[in-house]
């Protein structure tokens, strides 16, 4: 509430001032105060809504902990070489991506967090210079029997891929450029899948 007081107090004072000015016959100053009141209220609402939306978006993303960062450091030389600022931006994008997707595994009863992180890192690195897009409603299905080296998209909703393949690609790629220019077909397919949806 304290952060809203700086804008709320002038709005309340202007709300009181307009009728008082009109009762005392000061029509022009009342009109000016009314216009200022409308402008101040409009700007305040815009600022409040932007803050609320920004807070909501930051709360929706998956938060990374020490274990997640340790895994990313172990599996990816790209992540390891990034500055703290670059890691923060990457983690934020990965967190948003993970929060919008559903996951399943055809070969195990439980999902492995490391595999989800490997997928998210590969997906974001494949479109590293692109803007963020939501893949809400999509389901990533981990299938360790898929040894084709490619991902399969079923019914334009389910994506089958091998998480071991993703981890191996991450371990072999020292830079974002080498990752993007890799001859692994799955990287191009991840990029195409992301940009298509």
List keywords for this structure.
single chain, 197 residues, alpha/beta, four-stranded mixed β-sheet, 4 strands, 8% strand
Structural notes for this entry:
- This protein is α/β, with parallel strands linked by helices.
- Helices cover 65% and strands 8% of the residues.
- The chain contains 9 helices and 4 strands.
- It has helices spanning 2-23, 27-60, 66-75, 77-81, 84-100, 113-126, 163-172, 176-180, 185-196; strands at 102-105, 139-142, 152-154, 158-161.
- A 4-stranded mixed sheet has the order 1-2-4-3.
- Helix 3 (66-75) crosses helix 6.
- The longest helix is centred in the N-terminal third of the chain and has 34 residues, at 27-60.
- The chain starts with a helix and ends with a helix.
- The model has no long low-confidence stretch (mean pLDDT 86).
Short overview:
The chain is an alpha/beta fold. The protein has helices at 2-23, 27-60, 66-75, 77-81, 84-100, 113-126, 163-172, 176-180, 185-196, and strands at residues 102-105, 139-142, 152-154, 158-161. It is built from nine helices and four strands.
> What's the main sheet like?
4 strands, mixed
Sum up the overall morphology in one term: elongated
The average pLDDT score comes to 86
Counting DSSP H or I runs of 4 or more residues, the number of helices is 9
How big is the Rg?
25 Å
Order of H and E elements:
HHHHHEHEEEHHH
Largest sheet: spatial strand order: 1-2-4-3
Please give the share of residues in helix: 55-70%
Count of β-strands: 4
The N- and C-terminal alpha carbons lie at a distance of 40 Å
Query: Structural class of the secondary elements?
Result: alpha/beta
Strand content: 5-15%
Q: Which residues form runs of ≥5 with pLDDT under 50?
A: none
